[in-house]
Amino acid sequence: MSLTKTLDVSQTQRERLAFLELRAFFTGELRRGDIEARFGVKPAAASRDLSSYREIAPDNLDYDAPARCYRPSASFKPVFEFSTERVLAWLLQGFGDGLDLKLRQVAPCEGPGQLVKPDLEVLGVITRALVAKKAVRVNYLSLSSGSKRRELVPVALADNGLRWHVRAFDRERDRFGDFVLTRIAKAQEIDGEVQESEQIGADEQWARIVDLELVAHPGVEWPKAVEADYGMNEGVLRIKSRAALAGYVLRRWNIDSSPDHRLDPASHHLWLRNTQTLYGVESAALAPGASASTSKGAA
């Protein structure tokens, strides 16, 4: 039976304890000030939360005196049952941010859901390493080479609309790349320093911002309908994307990225008007209709 059913605490404190556990496990560090800042409570209240949690799960947290923070122990066992969707939403949007008060819906409303769900144990190793700027050793399942051990330095998480991947420096290939979270079978943090060339500041494709000018596909009979769909201003929707993610954006929305808008408008309602913006963008290979030479000159 879940320990959450036996917690004799108020709902408000339960939420704070859940945040405490979530932050400790997925970032690898927790300070009293984290609780104070998130919930606006006094230091004494935050200290009581820490004491309560340690009474409930005495073996879950170790105190790191030099760093003056708590860290998840080697025998850490979650008290709360976190769904993968909630954890990923927290990583993307913040824990409880947006005032999701769980009010009853006025009308039925459902989303498409997710078919792929990363393993939370693996995700925890990745996010702790990301926060601590550490490398990880993983068993990665590739479509081209099968299972292979790799040493990666995680620098960011990204959601491409269909699945999550980790942006990381691949030590074997000596370059940054994208790794699908669900293809990581095992992950273990590696001791040792990470070089500056392996950190996010050195990832040119992540740092580069690409301007995308989207318009109704010239082959669409009623372009005004498409303009209304996307709230276009003077017939153009301008968005910015990291170069590392631009191809995912264009593929997710099925945007014709060919210079001569040659793809079928029945399935591609949008066209990338400024296709030259993809020059040197490595992820452009994912964009529908993008020319093979688009990524020429990429790092």
Show unreliable segments. 98-106
Anisotropy-based shape:
globular
Tell me what portion of residues adopts beta-strand conformation.
15-25%
Rounded to an integer in angstroms, the radius of gyration calculated over CA atoms is 23 Å
Q: Biggest sheet, strands in spatial order? A: 6-5-4-3-7
The topology string of helices and strands comes to HHHEEHHEEEEEHEHEHE
Quick check: average pLDDT? 89
Determine the fraction of residues in helical runs and give it as a percent range: 25-40%
* Cα separation of the termini: 52 Å
Counting H and I runs of at least 4 residues, what is the number of helices? 8
Overall structural class, as computed from helix and strand content, comes to: alpha+beta
- Main β-sheet: number of strands, strand sense, barrel status? 5 strands, antiparallel
* DSSP strand tally: 10
Domain module tally: 3
Overall description:
The protein contains eight helices and ten strands. Strand 5 and strand 6 (175-180) form a beta hairpin. Residues 98-106 have low confidence and may be disordered. The chain starts with 10 loop residues before the first helix and ends in a 27-residue tail after the last strand. The protein is an alpha+beta fold. The protein has helices spanning 11-27, 32-39, 43-56, 84-93, 120-132, 204-207, 223-229, 243-252, and strands at residues 61-64, 69-72, 135-142, 146-159, 164-170, 175-180, 184-190, 209-216, 237-242, 270-272. The strands form three sheets. The protein has a five-stranded antiparallel beta sheet. Strands 9-8-10 form a three-stranded antiparallel beta sheet. A two-stranded antiparallel sheet has the order 1-2. The chain has three domains: 3-82, Winged helix-like DNA-binding domain superfamily/Winged helix DNA-binding domain (Arc Repressor Mutant, subunit A, Orthogonal Bundle), CATH 1.10.10.10; 120-199, SH3 type barrels (Roll); 205-286, no CATH class. Helix 1 (11-27) packs across helix 3 (43-56) and helix 2 crosses helix 3.
